[in-house]
Structure formats: structure tokens, C-alpha cells
Design brief:
Radius of gyration: 22 Å
Number of helices: 9
CATH architecture of the largest domain: Beta Barrel
Order of helices and strands: HEEHHHEHEEHEEEEEEEEEEHEHEEEHEE
Number of domains: 2
Structural class: alpha+beta
Oligomer: single chain
Helix content: 10-25%
Distance between the termini: 39 Å
CATH topology of the largest domain: Thrombin, subunit H
Length: 390
């Protein structure tokens, strides 16, 4: 824990800079952004629960990366953004009545094509406030992309390009099947170097870094359950693919832990279990149909587990309900410890968030809880944040 308090957990947006700014202005902007985002280099500088594996995964050699790399590079794209900002004027300019001028800020990142119709998933922070989005494919063709939908709560967005022929795309893999120590590849465009592939292993799962900022006024309530890897990612990798050795999309690279603004050993990806649901909803509805259990929880401690006669220190202890929620109207009680949802084991809050994020308002789930030295199963109809089932 002490390590994470001394490093900067930064989002991996590619480069943001204004061509008309002086170097001093760019440095000042990067310095301010470093608290929550990586320093953003100019685009021209060369400087982001295991189970049985799928049959395809079993047949691929664990250290043979050619298959995964070849399946990935054509489906991972380079994303360039441009946004207009008003140039700052000195007080003398205002006194003299000089008109304000617009400046163009440019940025770069990565994206992953997930359908033959040209749908692309990327990070929200890559395209946030963009007035124009240009996508470049591995075959050097470029397209103007339209925003289909965004979800700041998971830092994801869906774009679409129009092509005369079906586009190459990556199929989703099952991020639940990823095991600690399993090989993965990160594919993206770090430092504007297109189609870059790096390898690493899964270091941990269900990481909550408190990286995304809550914005209740905009209905933004962060959901974080990152896959942690040691695959090298840098500025420009944001929105790129994390793939398993079968070449399946298991995550979207989003963040790194760093003291310098560049890769320092750890990177973090949004798991495919979240990406797939968000992408489907954005493509179908234009917004995410997000379900909530409606509980306030605290982690189970060793003392708490002993008091409750639990054999293991795990789960989420319920301390309160959200009024009008599905949990509040169910047989769940304050003091219960959530152990599983629909058979999926819950060890901590990020796992609970990730699990519930797969469902829609109106879906019913079986919640297993520990109470009084025994396990009980309670049926809960999930609802949206307003307490509505649909």
C-alpha cells in the first residue's frame, strides 16, 4: 500500500498539445495533468478468477506470441483527436481589443476494432472533448470516426468508422479465465509508434486504484476492477488491446503506475467482462444500462471474520442499504457478508462491482450471504440508480 501512495497512478491518454503554444505552456500543462494523467508528449516525439481455458487457448503455446500478435495488429488502430480551444490572451490584448483566436489541441491514443461494421472501443479520456477523430489502420488507411457512445464511469467509449468492406476485428475472450501468471500481450501505439506489441504476465486482478473521478452531477460513478500486468505500456497505449495467447481481447489498456510519467513496471486494463457489456449497451442504446445491487459495504477484516465464525477472510459485509434498491427489498440483512453472486465468488468490492456490472436493471440474481454461521441464498432483482427495474 505504501508503494501506491508514492507513485502517480495516471491515465494513458496519448499526446495532447497545442501547436501554437510555447514549450513553456506545454510543460506547464503536462505538469498539472500529471496528478491524474500522464505527461503527454508531442505526436512527433519518440519518447500507457482462473478457470478452465478455452479450447483455442489450450492449443496455443504459452510462450508463442506470433498467433496472438498477428491476429491483433490489424484490429488495433491509431486514434488521433483534434479539439478547438480558445487561446489565452494577455490583459494588454484584452485592453487593446484584439479578437480571441482558436487553437487546435491534438492527441493520440489507441483503439480496438470489435466488429466487422467498424465499431471501435477506446478509452473515454482519449476522445474526451474531441471535435474531430481520425483513425489510422495498420494498412495505412485513415478514416473519420464518429462517437457512438461514451461511459466515463468505466473510462470507455465506442467509435465507428465506415468502410466499403468488412473490417478486421478482435473477438472478445473471457477475462474471468485469466490466471495470475498467465501470458498476455499489450498492443497499441505508444509514443506514436504504431502497431507496437509487448508481452507480460497477469500480475493481479480486481484492482481498485481510485483512479477515476466521481461526478454525481453527470451520473458518473466509477467502476474499477483492473487487470494488472507487467506488459510494457506508455503514453499512446490508452485504448489499446490486452490479448491472451489465443489472440482474444481480454482487456483495454488504461493506466500505469509511474513516478516519471513513463512505464515503471505495472500497467492496468479494464477487463473484457466490463468492456463487452459497456460496448453492447452503447452500440444498442447509446448509453449503458447499468444495474445496482443497492448496498453499502465494508471489507471483511480478520477480526470481523472471527466474530462471524467465518473460516476465510473474504467477502463484502453489508452495513446499509440504498433506499428503494433491490437489495433493500430483498431478504438480505444488514450484517450479512456477500460471498457470491449467481455462483461467482466475491472476495472484495472490486469483484462485486465487476460482477454486478454484467447485468441489466430488471435482472434477478442469486446472492449468497454468510449469516449466523451459515450460508443463505437470497434472490435480488437489480435496479438502476433511480430504483427502477428497467
Amino acid at each position: 500500500m505504501r508503494y501506491y501512495t508514492t507513485i502517480i497512478l495516471s491515465l494513458l491518454a496519448g499526446f495532447v498539445g497545442a501547436a501554437a503554444y510555447s514549450l513553456l505552456n506545454i510543460d506547464e500543462k503536462a505538469s498539472k495533468a500529471q496528478i491524474i494523467q500522464l505527461p503527454l508528449p508531442p505526436s512527433t516525439a519518440l519518447v500507457r478468477n482462473a478457470s478452465n481455458k478455452t479450447k483455442a487457448h489450450e492449443q496455443s503455446a504459452p510462450v508463442a506470441f506470433e498467433l496472438a500478435a498477428n491476429k491483433s495488429v490489424d484490429a488495433v488502430v491509431h486514434v488521433r483527436t483534434a479539439s478547438r480551444t480558445q487561446a489565452p490572451l494577455s490583459p494588454w490584448h484584452e485592453i487593446m481589443g484584439y479578437p480571441t483566436t482558436d487553437q487546435i489541441q491534438e492527441g493520440t491514443g489507441s483503439g480496438v476494432i470489435i466488429s466487422k461494421e467498424g465499431h471501435i472501443v477506446t478509452n473515454y479520456h482519449v476522445i474526451e472533448n474531441a471535435d474531430e477523430i481520425i483513425v489510422s489502420m495498420n494498412n495505412n488507411r485513415t478514416y473519420t470516426a464518429a462517437i457512438i457512445g461514451t461511459d466515463p464511469s468505466t473510462d470507455l467509449a465506442i467509435l465507428q468508422i465506415t468502410n466499403d468492406t468488412p473490417t478486421p476485428f478482435l473477438a472478445f475472450g473471457d477475462s474471468d479465465e485469466l490466471g495470475i501468471g498467465e501470458w498476455v500481450l499489450a498492443v497499441g501505439n505508444p509514443f506514436d509508434l504504431t502497431s507496437t506489441v509487448t508481452a507480460g504476465i497477469v500480475s493481479a486482478k480486481a484492482r481498485n486504484l481510485n483512479l477515476l473521478r466521481a461526478r454525481p452531477d453527470r451520473d458518473v460513478f466509477p467502476i474499477e476492477s483492473f487487470i494488472q500486468t507487467d506488459a510494457a505500456v506508455n503514453p499512446g497505449n490508452s485504448g489499446g488491446a490486452l490479448v491472451n495467447t489465443a489472440g482474444e481481447l481480454v482487456g483495454i489498456n488504461t493506466a500505469i503506475a509511474t513516478k516519471t510519467g513513463s512505464y515503471a513496471g505495472y500497467s492496468f486494463a479494464v477487463p473484457a467482462s466490463i468492456v463487452k457489456k459497456v460496448a453492447k449497451d452503447l452500440m444498442q442504446y447509446g448509453k449503458v444500462q447499468r444495474a445496482y445491487l443497492g448496498v453499502q459495504i465494508e471489507p471483511v477484516t480478520e477480526d470481523m471474520a472471527a466474530t462471524l465464525a467465518m473460516n476465510e477472510v473474504k467477502g463484502c459485509a453489508i452495513v446499509n442499504f440504498v433506499k428503494g434498491s433491490g437489495a433493500a427489498d430483498s431478504e438480505i440483512e444488514i450484517g450479512d457478508v456477500v460471498l457470491a453472486v449467481n455462483g461467482w465468488a466475491i472476495s472484495n468490492f472490486p469483484e462485486l462491482q465487476e460482477c454486478i456490472s454484467r447485468y441489466n436493471p430488471g435482472d434477478s440474481v442469486a446472492v449468497q450471504v454468510w449469516r449466523g454461521g451459515a450460508i443463505f441464498e437470497c434472490k435480488v432483482q437489480l435496479r438502476d440508480r433511480d430504483g427502477q427495474p428497467a
